[in-house]
Design a protein that fits this description.
The complex is a heterodimer.
Chain A (H helix, E strand, L loop, with lengths): L25 H15 L5 H13 L2 H13 L1 H9 L1 H7 L8 E6 L4 E6 L8 H4 L9 H9 L1 H7 L9 E6 L4 E6 L11 H5 L4 H5 L11
Parallel strand pairs in A: 1-4, 2-3
Helix pairs in contact in A: 3-4, 4-5, 7-8
Chain B lengths: L6 E4 L18 E12 L1 H4 L7 E10 H5 L9 E7 L3 E3 L7
Classes of the chains: A alpha/beta, B mainly beta.
């Protein structure tokens, strides 16, 4: 009887969830204080901050997927991407700001996977915000020590003939993996190929989708 | 080809402060994958000091070197970006 009238049920018939109100943490207070001071002193404006948030929210894995699909279909672009991924993605029209990007290409014998053990460095200026698990202590600590077990938990089991290369994003560079192009996609256009490129495949915790799974 | 590798050891120091050299790689030997930079030293940058521009090296380590020969896949690798002042030339580590 989910829609009976009970005090502990909301009008939709579901139990009320407790409010998650809690005092601001130290760093939340600091962020608000610094932000308000910067606005009060005229260093920046609330509109400029909102615009920056909107710019970041507009970035998504679809941007990276377009880059990967073009690398699969355009030999010159692939070469340029591997040489200087920042320049190649900018030339393609993506505003990646000051980000310095390295593209890592998966092959029949090499599988790349990206982690940031020190914090949560991620190519946000291309792919948008990282998934929560990317920032978890478990992912950050286990990926450098037992990457194949982590990969298996993501559903990726690699043969012993494949070398796993873990990339710890410790300093100024950010990384995007170019997954292998799936079989059965001969003749596909880049726009269609991009639909096969998942966020996880560009972190290295997944593979590109196959046409039958897409 | 491996004879051409430029091996480096990561300093085994444990200084206080903002350091971007992961502890698990300190004292380990790897080879230079590529050289980047120069980039400002984050150990100074983090404190608002005039930061020295330093080469940043991508160093590649074998799983055997980092976690010991008994590790499940000793030939898998870890690449990390290490600032030059954390590196000193080294001999190739002995094969496990």
């Amino acid at each position: 009887m989910p829609h009976d009238h009970h005090d502990h049920l909301s009008p939709s018939g579901h139990p009320y969830r407790p409010d998650d109100d809690h005092p601001l943490t130290y760093w939340q207070q600091m962020e608000i204080a610094v932000r308000e001071l910067l606005i009060e002193k005229g260093v920046t404006t609330a509109a400029a901050i909102n615009a920056q948030i909107e710019t970041m929210d507009a970035r998504s894995p679809a941007h990276g997927a377009a880059v990967v699909a073009r690398a699969w279909t355009d030999h010159d672009f692939r070469a340029a991407l591997l040489k200087d991924a920042s320049a190649a993605t900018r030339d393609m029209g993506f505003d990646i700001g000051p980000m310095r990007l390295i593209a890592l290409e998966n092959t029949d014998t090499i599988h790349n996977i990206v982690v940031c053990t020190l914090c949560s460095c991620y190519p946000r200026n291309l792919l948008g915000l990282p998934p929560d698990w990317y920032k978890s202590r478990a992912y950050r600590s286990r990926t450098v020590k037992e990457p194949r077990k982590v990969l298996a938990e993501f559903g990726v089991t690699l043969p012993d003939s494949t070398t796993v290369r873990v990339h710890d994003s410790t300093a100024d560079m950010r990384y995007v993996v170019i997954p292998q192009r799936p079989a059965g996609t001969d003749g596909w256009q880049a726009d269609d190929l991009a639909t096969l490129v998942t966020r996880d495949s560009m972190i290295g915790t997944g593979l590109a989708k196959t046409p039958d799974a897409a | 080809m491996s004879n051409d590798r430029q091996y480096m050891r990561v300093r085994a120091d444990m200084p206080p402060g903002h350091v971007r050299t992961p502890s698990y790689l300190r004292g380990k030997i790897g080879w230079v994958e590529r050289t980047l930079g120069p980039f400002p030293n984050p150990e100074q940058l983090a404190y608002g000091l005039n930061a020295q521009a330093l080469p940043l090296l991508r160093v590649r380590f074998s799983m055997a070197e980092v976690w010991g020969a008994a590790t499940a896949h000793p030939n898998d690798t870890i690449d990390a970006e290490i600032y030059s002042h954390w590196l000193e030339p080294a001999e190739a580590p002995h094969a496990p």
